[in-house]
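thoughts on both lines:
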Amino acid sequence: MVHETFPIPAPMFNGASRRVDVGNVFDWFRQGWAIFLAKPGVWMAMTIILLVILSGLAIIPWFAELAACLLTPLLAAGLLLACRKVERNETLEISDLFAAFQSHSGGLVMLGVFYMLVMLGGGLLGTLPSLLLCMLIALSIWFASALLVFNRLPPVDALKASCHACLKNFLVFLVYGLISLVLCFFAALPIGLGFLVLGPVLAGSVYASYRDIFIAV
């Protein structure tokens, strides 16, 4: 006779996602704004540090793109972890921006390597194929960091689940992208200072979209 051991482990998350309404986009931005308002000073400080890092990388042009590809998943995961801390009413700290470097660096670096290789490959293609490739990269990367950090999905599975979820909600993300472009236009007007607010709001909206499309399944 086989005896069950308790507690019985929960089944592994399989990357299942759901289709949402276009109107949910506005809820994502509202939640992003609320996450920012919970600790605006810390969020703006993290954004400044992020901008300084990216500006510093730009000093060496040929190195900047490669380094940015590797760092993007790590820094994005740090922002998402910070969003979760706010959601849980935990104390938000500037160092949370680098939280993923300590706990999830291996898988996130693999995501960055994938991003880097695909971007390099895209430079060898024509204009239209490159645009399509960039779109697929964006869809694959969008939720990949969150799925790897929060759901422990392997990098390849996280990329697949992210792409599938975004394609399932293509119209929703088209609306999200258009609204984000408009917001970026206005954020850039006061010599870019608006990004100190918009950056954290967008990070919060990405976290909200992840919670809506995956956690609510």
Notes: The first helix runs from residue 24 to 38. Residues 40 and 197 are 8 Å apart (CA to CA).
